[in-house]
Structure formats: C-alpha cells, structure tokens
Amino acid sequence: MIIMAIIEPKILKGTRDFGPNEAAKRLSVINKIRSVFIKNGYDAIETPAIEYAATILGKYGDEGDKLTYAFKDHGGRHIALRYDLTVPTARFVAANWTSLPMPFKRYQIGPVWRADKPQRGRFREFYQCDIDIIGSTSAMADAEIAKVVNDVFSTLGFNKFLIRINSRRLMNDILEQCKVKKSDRVEVIRQIDKLDKTSLKDVEKELEKTCLDKKQIKELSKIALSEKARYNLSDVPDGESKKEIDRVLSTIKQFGVPDKNITLDLALARGLDYYTGVVYEVIIPDSGLGSVCGGGRYDDLAELFSDKKFPGTGVAFGFDRIMTWLEENKKLDDVELSSKVLVVNFEDTIKENLRTLTELHKANISAEIYIEDAKMQKQLKYADKKQIPWVIVQGSNEIKRKKVILTD
Amino acid sequence: MIIMAIIEPKILKGTRDFGPNEAAKRLSVINKIRSVFIKNGYDAIETPAIEYAATILGKYGDEGDKLTYAFKDHGGRHIALRYDLTVPTARFVAANWTSLPMPFKRYQIGPVWRADKPQRGRFREFYQCDIDIIGSTSAMADAEIAKVVNDVFSTLGFNKFLIRINSRRLMNDILEQCKVKKSDRVEVIRQIDKLDKTSLKDVEKELEKTCLDKKQIKELSKIALSEKARYNLSDVPDGESKKEIDRVLSTIKQFGVPDKNITLDLALARGLDYYTGVVYEVIIPDSGLGSVCGGGRYDDLAELFSDKKFPGTGVAFGFDRIMTWLEENKKLDDVELSSKVLVVNFEDTIKENLRTLTELHKANISAEIYIEDAKMQKQLKYADKKQIPWVIVQGSNEIKRKKVILTD
C-alpha cells in the first residue's frame, strides 16, 4: 500500500490565482486596452518569458540582480525570468530591425516577474501593457503616446484622469539656469520628486540641507516648483528644450486630447530612471492609487544590444492598479461569464434537449446543457452559481404541449 | 569613459520571438479557440507561471524533475515553472472547490515550460489550450469534450480531421478477456500504442517476444487490433465498459458531431498516462503532424492536493502543431495587422491631417498618421511594409481643391 502525503494546495506569496469572474474581467480589460493600441496602429510582438540572464540583467546591474528571478538550467546556462517588457523589446529590435517597419510602433501585453517583497498592490508576477515608438526622435511621436494614453483611460471609463508631462532636457536646462552643479543634480531631482508627497517648504528645506544655497532654491521655485510656476512654461527661460516641450504639448492638443486630461508638470521627475527626453505619468485624482501609467523617451533604447542607435518613446500601463480602480468604481459589473443559456437536462427528453442546444449554438448563442441527469433544483442552483441569465426547460410535459419554458 | 560590451541579442534555443505578423496570427487563432470554449459554457481561470516546486513536481517524480525548470529563489524557496496546465488546475480546484460551480467547466490558455532538448516542433516555452470538466463522472461529460473538440477544428478551418476515442477501462477488460497478466499490461499497451507507426504483424511479433503467447495474441487481434475489429465494438465481449463507451459514442452523435469526424479506436492507448476512463486523440489525416489534441478521463484529478475526489475529463490542444497546419494550408493569410489607413504627414497641412485621423478614429477605423514629416516615398514605403491597405493624401494642393486622395 502506498500512502501519499497530501501537498498543501497553496501558491507563492505575490502570485495569484484568478477564478472565472476575475479572469473574465481581466480579459475584458486587456481586450479593451489592446483594441485601443490596434486602433492607433500599434502591432503586437511576443518575446519569451525566459531569456539569458545577461540579456535581462544587463541594464539593472546589482539592484536588478536582487529583484530578478535568475537561475541555472540543467545545461548550466544562466537564465532569468523577464523583469519588464522594455529590455526584451530592445533585444528584439536589435536582432530584427532590418525586417521591421521603421518607425516601429509595437505593443506588448504579458506577465513579468520580480523577486520583490510582496505587499498590498505589489506582486511577484504581474501583467504589464506597453506601447513604444522606436526609431523616431520627432515631437509628434511623444505626442502620440499621450494621445494613446488618453484613448486608453477614456475607453476604460475613467471619468477623471490627468496625464502629467515634463521633459528631462528641460529639467536639466532649468537646473543649469539655477547653477546646480552636475554632481548635485541626482540629489536635487530626488528631492523634487517628493513634491507630491510633501510641501514645497519641506522640499526647499531638504534642498538647503543637502546641496543648494538660498538663492538657487528661490530661483528654482520661481521657475519650476511654486504652484504658480509648476504647470506652465511662462517662467522658464527660452531655449531649445522649452521649444521642444511646447511643440509636444501643442501637438497633443492637435491630436484631440482635451485640456482637462493633460498638464505640463515641471516638477515631474519619474525617479532616477534612464529617460533622456519627455517623461509622462498618469494619476487618478482623489483615488489614492499613485501613478497608473508612466514612461518617457530614451535616446538609445537598445544600446546594450547594438551599435546602432534606436531612439524610443513609450509608456507602461499599471494593469493591476487599473483593475483595482475599475473594480472599486463598479466599471466591471457588466462583464459576462461564458454561458447565456442553460438547457436543463432531462433523461427522457435528452435528444430534444441536445437538439435545442445545437440550435442555440447555430444561432451563435453561448449555451450549455447541464452535463448530468440531476434534480431540477440542482441544475438551477448551478445556473445561479455560474450567473447564467437564461434557463430552458424542455421536459416531456413541455414537449407534449409543444412548449418550451424560457425563464430568467 | 565607460566602454560597454555589446550583449549579443540572442534568445534561448527552444524559445521564440513573434514579430507583428506571427503575433497577429497567433492571437487570431487563440481568440477563435477561446470563442468556441466560451460558446460551450467554459469559463477561464488563470494560475501563476511560478509555483512551489512541490506542487509542480508532485505528479511527475524523477522524469518531471529532469524536464522541469526548478530553482531556489532568494528566500531559499523551491520554485518551478509550470510544466502543464493540468497540475495547476488540480491545485486550484483543491483549494477553491467550495466557491466553484460543480461540475466545473474551465478552460485555460497560456505558456508552459519544459527543460527539454529542443527539436523541430518541440519547444522549451510553448502554449497549451486546455478544457476540462471537473466533478462529473457522466458519459455526457466525456461526449461534450469530443463535441467541443469537433467545434474547435471545424471553426479553425480544418476540412479533414479525425477524433479517435477509446476507453482505458474497456482496454483493461479486453486484456482481461485475453488473460494478459496485470504485470504485463504496461508492456502490452506500450506495444499496442505503436500500431500506427508499424504493422500489426510487427506488433504481434514484439508481443510474442516479450510477454504473450500465440493464443493470446490471436484473440487480442481478433477483438481489438485487426483492421476489421479495431474501429468498432462488434467483436468486443459485452460488459459494463462496453456499454459505457457505447453510451459516450451515441451521445457524441446526439451532440451533432458528424460521423466522418469521429471514430472508436480500440488500439488507441495515449501512452502510459494516468487516464482511467475515456481517452481521446485528434489526428489530421495525411498531414504528417501526429496528434494535434489529446486527453482523457481521470478518476481523481486532485489526489495530490486533496482527500476529496475530483473526477475529471478533458483535452489539451497542441497549439503549435495547429498553427503549423493552418500556416501551411494558407488559412491565416487574411489575418490583418493593426492599421487600415495611413494618413500621410505634410508639415504645412498637419492640422488637417490630424483632424482627418481623429475623424477616422471616431468612425472606429484603425488608422495612424506617419509619425514624422518625411518624403512621400518614405511614408508610402512604410505603409507597404506595415501592410496598410489604404493611404490618405491630403497636402496643400488637395486642400485647395477641397479634395482628399484615398489610394490603395
């Protein structure tokens, strides 16, 4: 006799199962996002979940190493699970650019993995939805990204959202204007980035403590950080970078994005990331959700993988936060499960029942027959649990009377 | 100065990139398969790609260990990439059955990973598409699986396919009838399974060499293996298992599956797998492809994870082989990429060009503007490479003449 121990049916923290209801909702949102991408001329690519660790880790260095699932396979190869969709795309473009249309507008939707400490809203396996335009330095490309972002959030039913936009180049010119030393800039940007969570006064205090003098701080606030200066270009000295962001903003308008959904934000830094031009971020006012979408322009997307330069601009949508907001705001209540009709199963009229099912399928109606001969009540309970809106009752009585009972 | 070495942009053998054309085709086929599942009342579930190694390896033992990507994470936990979709589903059902409708009809579509030697048509990362009915022992459940299989291959445009069906229980009764010792059955089934690749004579020779005597072989051939006996029940002695498979076959007919698409095959074994009842397999005659779909019934799907019994019946579709056939038979030539219209970009009429784009999007037409101001020829070349069927030319001349040129 073999006695087998039962394995506890648990999953790793930071990973999730999705049952029928949640899976249907997720698919419905993915399909909506995808349809916006396609409508705007973005084509899908797919890359593997597992790649050479050198490919995945190349960009992230030590920090990435800690947060990346990496291991040796049976052949001793160093392998990693993808950490994002940007690096695999860069690798893909470097390998395939001769056969791709340029500029290359691609989207990619799929899971990524982070060996992170799981927290509320932070997962080890989660979906990213990315769009990028690769191979163009034009302001119009940056503007189109904002246009697609606007389309996505409008289509999903967000009644209030704000696309914040800034330019790394402009930020550098402003810091230059304020005579901030190159070596201090990382720290200054780090402090500015806190402006949304704290007050201008506190940021100014921190800046004085760490690297700037009073005069520098005064000028920086006047040009970019004060409530009056932060959301427009009027106090920013003229220059190439100002012209450039101005052109992006006016093109976004020409793309039909309503003023209420977009704002320049001179204090937007997007962390210490590798962006070199425009940066974007989307927030949902009063939601407490933080950023639900973010991205920017980089001069050379594929520098790790190619001598050729591939300028790129794009964003990643935070699928889980988007799902959270849609759930909480009851935008997903009408997502339907598979079956619209349950044909009740009667042993003596099974032929007729199956014929009815065939007719429903021919009419392209999602329908099923209860898969066992069981008591009516059990079958109705099943319909209830599966949220099947219609039930067809066609027993011998109904057939005698040439009737079918359709009930909701 | 930092000199960075270029990382070669290559991927692991047995994994694949899919560019715009291939990705669009794959998505179109997945959507068709999914629509058939939904039409027949199957709901999606999603489970994580990474699970505790004990969960993934439980069933496969040593063989699985070799073929599974397993590793320790930073916290020392034993983790594995899922090897199939059946084990995670069993784990999911064991953990969630109280909140699921029963019988539970679920589908799952997603990637699985095998640390296998890559060969033509054998990958390390590939998609599976599964349906299962869990929690029912009825013949109708088995029959419905065959019905959905028939729907999938019909919907995808396979003009010729054959669903082969057999019963493990019937096979055991036949071996009993031929007085094959229990200890010899695995070997006998292994030999029978070769019947498609070799002749009956060779199989008989092998059986005589290994474990059966002439009389046993003669009887086995008469009942089940000869051309005359193999595809019907007429020479099989009466019994419960014969009644059962007969009921499944007649119910499949009642479900509307055409006779030409289905056959009993008493020599079908489906390897040495864990099936306990009906087994199914789909072949495409004259395709040289081997099995494109297979599965069967198991008495207890979740025995590793629960004391409760969950009988299940289902199949997995071989997505890659299906794609190969559809590609080779030109069934995917009409799959479209994203954009239907390219609006040509002219610097002096950019406002009008963008207004036209907005109108197209309002009419729900997939369209894009060329994202840079470039020479007409370059823009048309781009449309060509992206297979965009229509181009709108609206320069200053056209606007003066209040005309737009629409060209294919």
For the largest interface in this structure, which chains are involved and how many residues does each contribute? A-B, 104 and 103 residues
If helices are DSSP runs of H or I spanning 4 or more residues, what is the number of helices of chain A?
A: 15
Broad CATH class of the domain at 341-407 in chain A? Alpha Beta
Helix content of chain A: 25-40%
Descriptive report:
Two copies of one chain form a homodimer. With 408 residues, chain A is an alpha/beta fold. The first copy, chain A, has a domain at 341-407: Rossmann fold. Chain A is built from 15 helices and 15 strands. Chain A has helices at residues 20-39, 53-57, 61-67, 86-96, 139-156, 168-177, 185-192, 200-210, 214-225, 227-230, 240-254, 319-328, 350-362, 376-385, 396-400; strands at residues 43-44, 50-52, 70-72, 78-81, 104-113, 125-134, 162-167, 262-264, 278-283, 291-298, 312-318, 341-343, 367-369, 390-393, 405-407. In chain A, the strands form three sheets. An eight-stranded mixed beta sheet of chain A has the order 1-5-6-11-10-9-7-8. In chain A, strands 13-12-14-15 form a four-stranded mixed beta sheet, with helices on one face. In chain A, a hairpin with a 5-residue loop joins strand 3 and strand 4. The longest helix of chain A has 20 residues, at 20-39. The mean pLDDT of chain A is 92. Chains A and B meet through helix 1, strand 1, strand 2, helix 4 and strand 5 of A and helix 1, strand 1, strand 2, helix 4 and strand 5 of B.
